Amino acid sequence: MKKVEKGEFGYLAYKKSRNMIKTIIAFAVVLVIFIIGFIIWKSKNNYLTMLAVVLVLPAAKFAVSYFVLIPHKNCDEELKSAIEERKGELNSVYDLVVSNKQKPVGIMAAVISDNQILAYTSAAKADKNLFETSVKEFLKNEKLTCAVLLYKDKDTYLEKVKNAALNFDVSKENSLDRKKYITDALLRMSM
Predict the structure, then answer these.
(1) Keyword Transmembrane helix on this protein (predicted)?
(2) pTM (2 decimals)?
(3) Which residues have C-beta within 8 Å of that of residue 175, sequence separation ≥ 6?
């Protein structure tokens, strides 16, 4: 399985499969340790049972990290190519689950300029206000400010990406650095 970095196309599918494998292995280790202890001492009251019980905690952590990602959808190839042809000099990231204090919000794609983040999700239940305020808050803590918008309509989103690319001024001083800082901050905020 080829490693996919956070923000690259296919990251969510990679992370889901990797977390599932970790969860299966962790619970298999717990089960094997428990069975070995039961076979050796012919009772569940032994040190290996105690070790197996303690090892359930990291296994549960792996399971939680897997189950958190399950409801979120991956970006499809069609959307990626539509964004790539419209984004121009802007940065793009794909397949992110943005964490916050209440509940994670999955975004299929985000396009970042020096003054805005345009994100897209197809999830009807995604909390637009929660996403926008939590990202703005996180950026504020990073000493960055920009407009944050989450779209649920694909055509509107692609039109906004096209307009943002047309309005982006590469010659403006520090715009490329600022675009990179905002992109890095969004990636740090994501799972």
Answers:
(1) yes
(2) 0.89
(3) 113, 114, 168, 169
